[in-house]
Automatic annotation (TrEMBL):
Residues 304-361 form the COS domain. One of its GO terms (cellular component) is microtubule. Residues 1-19 form the signal peptide. Residues 155-197 form the B box-type domain. It is found in: Cytoplasm, Cytoskeleton. Keywords: Coiled coil, Cytoplasm, Cytoskeleton, Metal-binding, Microtubule, Repeat, Signal, Transferase, Zinc, Zinc-finger. This is E3 ubiquitin-protein ligase TRIM36 isoform X2. GO terms for biological process: acrosome reaction; spindle organization. CDD domains: Bbox1_TRIM36_C-I, Bbox2_TRIM36_C-I, FN3. Belongs to the TRIM/RBCC family. Residues 363-469 form the Fibronectin type-III domain. It comes from Solea senegalensis (Senegalese sole).
Length: 693
């Protein structure tokens, strides 16, 4: 029952899609029904006339493949008619107007009968009597194809639009369209792969049936997804209403705070105004009293006329005090209050700026850490990118935490430290440098953006493994064994390049016999006499043969300056561009401990000793049949002087590829050997190359 309901819904959907397709298609309804073009349909280009010198270019938007199609000069005539789609559309239209009967095209009015059959060859509809009359037994018309009553008549076979007289009988797998034999022999499909129409029919029908069956079988999944979408719609509506309420609450709190501050400030202004007015009014009253005492002078003059000394002294003492106070107030006049209210002037420019910059566009999109530009060496360089349609951000914050060193039993301190995220200072560019990282440790990094005090979600975490030892800094040395004829250093001495010149070609015979005559060596300008050190570099994929490793200074002079019997089989310890297995069969008299790379591959010796870090690849690397690995983009070397061991790493993943014992009797130098064309570039220190803006 459910499947039936689903099929009814699917049928309705198909009907609506077909109707929409027909509306978009450039079809034409003629006297006998609807004409639909397959895949691409068109009308003539506007403004073009027959016989015009200007070629006609007809471009339409195909409703099927959703691409713009250039039909060329022939335009619509180059397209197949989609008879299947026409039949489906006509069938659904007839079902929609089932109440309107199809009448016989032969009967004469007024006795026109309802048609019961339609002949696809005659392209007409007949009632039973007219059909028997026009298709009698024993005549060729009796073999005509007839169907139920319809107004859509299509030909019995599909004709080629390029060769109008040829039937299509093959299917082009390149263009995915039916073709005729002339199209395959000398037409536009001459070099295309074609198959028989029956084979294409069977394959496409099976695919379509499987697709429909798969769609029907996913009815429960579709219903579940519809339920999930409805739940998301309800959740979106609820969250939107919640966001509106929270925004209203935030602004109401802002309004209340502003109203409180406004009331408080107005109250303070009113109190200060009343206090000042009282002081000034009191001073006015005091001076008005002085004016009222203008008869004081006359009174004093009358007192001066008193001749009785005792009476004069009795009255003049009080009178003198009053006159002295009035005189002093006139000499030192000061207002009792300041009429200026400068202390109540507010500077709200910062607050206005903050209010104007309030972000109502939602939180910023999270950035995405770009692993192709992020790496660790002496420090970690983390780069990220933002979405294409992101708004400008104020700054970024990089956070990192230690996930622990690859030890069997990490300490409790390591476990506790792994849950603590540390943040860098604000970063105003698309990258940042993280310092003070421990060696041989796995770190997780994440980034988030900030705009108008609103932080984005964190980016997905990425993990980077720090080198197994502190980064060792050196440059190439051109003093010991350096062949200036075949090796070229750049000005910074961090890149060496070997070019296969005439000397290499002349020595080709010796190269084929396995002599090292074409191998040129170069070492670093800084040596190691203690501790554990790590350095990394890049070998160009086109390099013919490159050997990398370490060399001992106690044997370098003897190796480069003492003559060697190059024809001796004892000297032939490497066979040129080989598997690198001879690197393990070195003699103690040789100063080099090397690993072979060449032509985009890394050659692991048969008797390699793999560390626990690369235990996953131990079986394949130790197997003599699987000793060739793809060359890493960056290769790292770690020398443990006290342990007398050298390790070779994939510098991007910090996976140990190969390790071996080495004689550290003297000072050890990074060593490189190049044969033929090749290039080695040393890793640059991150702090010297990356800056945080």
């Amino acid at each position: 029952m459910h499947c039936f309901i689903f099929l009814v819904g699917l049928t309705s959907l198909l009907c609506s899609l077909l109707a929409a397709t027909v509306r978009r298609s450039f079809g034409s309804r003629g006297r006998r029904g609807l004409r639909v073009l397959s895949s691409c349909s068109s009308i003539s280009s506007p403004g073009w006339r027959r016989g015009s010198v200007t070629p006609r270019i007809t471009t339409i938007h195909c409703p099927g493949c959703q691409h713009d199609i250039d039909l060329g000069e022939r335009g619509i005539s180059m397209l197949f008619r989609n008879f299947t789609l026409e039949s489906i559309v006509e069938r659904y239209r007839q079902a929609a107007r089932a109440a309107v009967a199809i009448m016989c095209n032969i009967c004469k009015p007024p006795q026109v009968q309802e048609a019961t059959k339609s002949c696809m060859d005659c392209k007409a509809s007949y009632c039973n009597e007219c059909f028997k009359l026009h298709h009698p037994w024993g005549t060729p018309k009796a073999q005509h194809e007839y169907v139920g009553p319809t107004t859509n008549f299509r030909p019995k076979v599909l004709m080629c639009p390029e060769h109008e007289m040829e039937k299509v009988n093959m299917y082009c797998e390149v263009c995915r369209r039916p073709v005729c034999h002339l199209c395959k022999l000398g037409g536009s499909h001459a070099n295309h792969k074609v198959t028989s129409m029956s084979s294409a029919y069977k394959i496409l029908k099976e695919k379509l049936a499987k697709s429909i069956h798969f769609l029907i079988s996913k009815e429960d999944q579709v219903r579940t997804q519809i339920t999930d979408l409805e739940h998301l719609i309800n959740q979106t509506e609820e969250n939107g209403q919640l966001a509106e309420r929270e925004a209203n609450e935030h602004f109401e709190r802002l309004f209340e705070t502003l109203q409180e501050r406004k009331s408080e400030m107005l109250r303070s202004i009113e109190q200060s105004r009343n206090r000042r007015l009282n002081h000034l009014k009191g001073q006015v009253e005091e001076y008005q009293g002085m004016l009222e005492n203008s008869g004081l002078v006359g009174y004093a003059q009358e007192v001066l006329k008193e001749t009785d000394q005792s009476c004069f002294v009795q009255t003049a003492k009080q009178l003198h005090v009053r006159i002295q106070k009035a005189t002093e107030s006139l000499r030192t006049f000061h207002p009792a209050a300041d009429p200026c209210f400068d202390e109540f002037v507010l500077d709200t420019s910062k607050e206005e700026t903050l209010l104007k910059e309030m972000c109502f566009g939602g939180v910023p999109d999270p950035p995405l850490i770009d692993l192709s530009h992020s790496r660790v060496y002496n420090e970690a360089s983390i780069s990220w990118r933002l979405s294409d349609d992101h708004l400008p951000t104020d700054h970024h914050v990089v956070e990192y935490r230690r996930l622990g060193a690859p030890s069997p039993s990490p300490s409790q301190e390591d476990v506790d430290d792994s849950s603590v995220w540390r943040a860098t200072d604000r970063v105003y560019g698309p990258s940042a440098v993280v310092c003070d990282l421990e060696p041989n440790t796995l770190y997780a990094f994440r980034v988030r953006s900030c705009r108008n005090s609103m932080f984005s979600p964190y980016s997905p975490e990425v993990t980077l493994h720090t080198p197994p030892a502190p980064a060792f800094g050196f440059l190439f040395s051109d003093k010991c064994g350096f062949s200036a004829e075949r090796l070229a250093l750049n000005k910074r001495r961090d890149t060496v390049e070997s070019v296969a010149g005439m000397a290499f070609l002349l020595a080709a015979e010796r190269v084929q016999t396995g002599s090292y005559i074409g191998l040129d060596y170069i070492i670093g300008d800084t040596g190691i006499s203690q501790g554990r050190h790590y350095w990394s570099f890049k070998v160009e994929p086109y390099s013919y043969l490159v050997k990398v490793g370490v060399a001992s200074d106690s044997k370098l002079l003897e190796w480069f300056h003492n003559p060697r019997d190059t024809s001796s089989p004892r000297y032939d310890h490497d066979s040129g561009h080989d598997s690198g297995s001879e690197d393990t069969c070195y003699e103690l008299s040789q100063p080099f401990t090397l690993l072979t790379l060449g032509m985009g591959k890394l050659f692991i010796p048969k008797s390699s000793s793999l560390s626990s870090v690369s235990s996953a690849n131990a079986s394949s690397a130790a197997d003599p049949g699987n000793r060739v690995l793809p060359m890493p983009q960056r290769l790292g070397i770690c020398l443990d002087y006290e342990a007398c061991r050298v390790y070779f790493f994939d510098a991007d993943t910090m996976r140990c590829l190969y390790e071996r014992q080495v004689d550290c009797s003297g000072t050890m130098y990074p060593a490189f050997g190049l044969m033929g064309s090749g290039k080695v570039q040393l890793e640059e220190f991150i702090a010297a190359k990356k800056l945080t803006f």
